[in-house]
Each structure stands twice: as C-alpha cells, then as structure tokens.
Amino acid sequence: MRACCLGPRRNPARWLRISSWCLHAGQPIERIRAGITPCSLPLRSQFCRPVVPGLLRKLIFLTYVAHATRANRSSVGSGARMSCRGELRHDSTSVTCMRCSAAFKLHGRIPVFLKEPVTIPPENHRSNPIGAEFETILREGKDFVLHIGAGVSAQRYPNCIEFERRPFRHTDVIGDAHSLPFRAGSFDRVFAFNVFEHLAEPQKAAAEILRVLKPGGSVAIHSAFLQAVHEAPHHYFNATEFGLRKWFSSFEVERCHVSGNFAPGMMLAYLMSSVINTAKEGGAALDNVMRLRNTTLGEWADLWAGTGHHPGGFEILQSLPQSAQSKIAAGFELVARKR
Question: Domain spanning 132-261: which superfamily?
C-alpha cells in the first residue's frame, strides 16, 4: 500500500489543484485576495471552478503534493515512508502519482489514502464539541490546523484540514493517523480529540504528529481514562496521565490535566449510564434494570469496603453475558499459548 504526502512544494509556481477546486498559481496574488479568480489554463482535472479567497490557504496545503514509497508490511493501515516526491494528477475517480503511477481512489471529492474500503458512518453519528478554547483558535484563523478525527464538526474552517478514516460532511482527507499523508513541518497545530484510545499504536501516531508540526507547533488531545468500551472493536487503550506523557515523551508537555468534560462528576454520570444501558442491552429484565437503577452509591462503596451486603443490582451485573460484561468490566484475564 502506498500513501501520499500533502504539503507545500519548493516551487510555488506550479499547479495548485484539489478535487473540484483548482487555481493556476500564476494568477497575481492581489487578484486572488481581491476576489474570485477563475482558472486561466487547461487543467489535468476534469473539474474547474473559481476559488473562494478564504479557501486559498487550505488549497495551497492540500494541493502541493509529494508521493510516498510502498509501506513496510508490518506497518499499521496505510503507513508509509516518505521518499517518492511525485506530483499527483487526478480525474473524477482517482488520484495518480505522476512519478511512480501509484493510484488512490476518491470518495466523492475526498482523496483516500487507506488500504481498506471506506466505510460510511451512520447518519445519526454524533461528535462531542471540542471546547470553546479550541473553537476560538479555529475561528480566529491565525494558525493552520490539522484536525485528526474531526467527525461531525459543527463548521468548516478554511484554516483547518479535517482528517478522518470515514467521510463526514467536512472531511478533507481520508487516511490513517499512524501515517499522516502530509509533508513534515506543515501545521501550526494538531487537534486529536477522543482519538488516541482508538489507535492501535498511539506512540507511532504521536511521532507522526511531531513530524507534521512546524517547529514550535502544538498538539492538543483528549483521551479516555475511565470510560466504557465504545466503537468496538477499535477501542484499544484507556490511558492514565502517565500513559499520555509516555506517548508524547518527545514533546515538551505544557499541561496534562483533567478538563471539564472529563471531570469526576462527568465520569460518574457516564459510567452509571453505561452500566444501565449495558444491562438493558445484555438482556436484563426490566424489573431487574429498575432494581439496579434504585441502588445507591453508598451501597456499592460499602460492598467494596467489606462493610455491606451485595446491592440489589450486583447479581444482575455478574450474570450478564461476557459480550456485555466486556464493555464495563474492571479488567480482563488473558491466557495464551506459544504457537
């Protein structure tokens, strides 16, 4: 599998193009800033539309391209090592490297740098807000941001590249966070909220983020600690603060703290909701679910302290099928044999 590397080229007087938006770099920058500038030369792409000035910066980063060599078989997903620096050409269905002829499909107008077929997210998929601090950064537009795992974002920002494994309404590029298809030193900031628990090799993804950041660039992530299994089977890690610091040990960590969305009250509400919902999904009778709902935190605390009896919902949870217990268990036992 090959991957592509998107980012600024050394020679800016070359073609700029991505999907249905295209622009000839020879146009005076004053005209581009002043208003809509049509393409003036024949395009290799079948598409041709005028460029909205607010999209200019995103276009430059998306359309100056370099290609990558075949990935090591042991790498994750579409991981690749950047070396082939071929320009990309695209038509209505694919993107092709003009140097090594490697081809990548388009999903609609989104370039896809994955080995496996693209999966469509459900229509009711919801994404959590990223928080006022980070929305402000995007809204101000001062920094060029790579947003990994953006999901169903509320708004499209011209200074933000939304990178996903699945196509959402504002997705710009589909690929694998373990092998980001961007040139080194391309971004001022990287956001990855509620992503790292779903990565098979989080340290590898952290190294990729380090590579694509400009010197002095920053990364901000939210990652699970006390959370039930979600988006199975791609929920691999719940990390402590020490785990996060290990993953990002190559960075200068400015802060690693409990943000408001992960505060203990939210954790308790989330876990209790997960327990109740898992009991329902696991086949518990309605009256048993109600017994579970009516227990108190004090009863459970007394059980753990050895000063109380089993609360009314204890046996209900203990008797759930393994498929249900695995979502809300305290841990797992594994027994394996050498091949």
Answer: Vaccinia Virus protein VP39 (3.40.50.150)
